[in-house]
Amino acid sequence: MPAFRKAYKKLYYKQKIEVDCAIRTIVANPEIGVAKKGDLLGTYVYKFKMSKQEVLLAYEWTKNERVLLSLGTHENFYRNLKRFH
User: Fold this and answer.
1) Cα dihedral sign for 53, 58, 61, 65?
2) Torsion sign, CA atoms 36, 40, 15, 32
3) What does each of the 85 residues of the chain score in pLDDT, given as a tens digit?
4) Domain with 78 in it: what CATH number?
5) Best exposed site among 7, 15, 63, 79 by fewest CB in 10 Å?
């Protein structure tokens, strides 16, 4: 999705490696994230540390695919996610 792609593009190389590791974790076990309710029903959010800061990765998944929606810190994360969802 455009929001994820835009955020990923701005990261440094070492940060991209950490995000890639989080993506591999999601691909291996998509239920690892927290399922959201209400407006974001069907969306999962996985929290992980990147450069000593907590980062959230929003995604949706089906049996055959994983769709990465957004990446960022907690500040305004859910507000922006609702805008794109």
Assistant:
1) negative
2) positive
3) 788 999 999 999 999 999 999 999 999 999 999 999 999 999 999 999 998 999 999 999 998 899 999 999 999 999 988 887 7
4) 3.30.2310
5) 63
